[in-house]
Design brief:
Distance between the termini: 55 Å
Helix content: over 70%
Shape: extended
Structural class: mainly alpha
Mean pLDDT: 79
Number of helices: 6
Amino acid sequence: MNNLKQTLRMLRSKMKLLAIQHTEYIGITVALLLLLIFPPIIRLYDPTAAPIDAGALSGILLAVVSVLIFLSVTWWFIRAIWPVFAEYSNTDFTTDFKNLQPWQKIKIYIGFYSFVVLAFLAALVAIL
């Protein structure tokens, strides 16, 4: 019995650590649970509500896969065409980024995030 309690305690602490380190997984899990729970709940209020179209959901998944493939192929081209940049990115970029001013880091972060969002939207529009 003690061994089971210790195992459960260890699992609980590992789950807390995982939740702290990887908060994006919590958001994905909550979104998927809401996706599964939403149709029966909405039908309680509106019996004529249609189910979520699986084609729209597969379109989103295809857009995500398209963006990931695009990023992988782009990185492959950079390594093939401009290997000096790939080496710099793997070795010195982190230290140079840490030495930037906070406003410069924010501009780079917002630019990168905007690029990823626009790439996802472009892939989604192209697919749908």
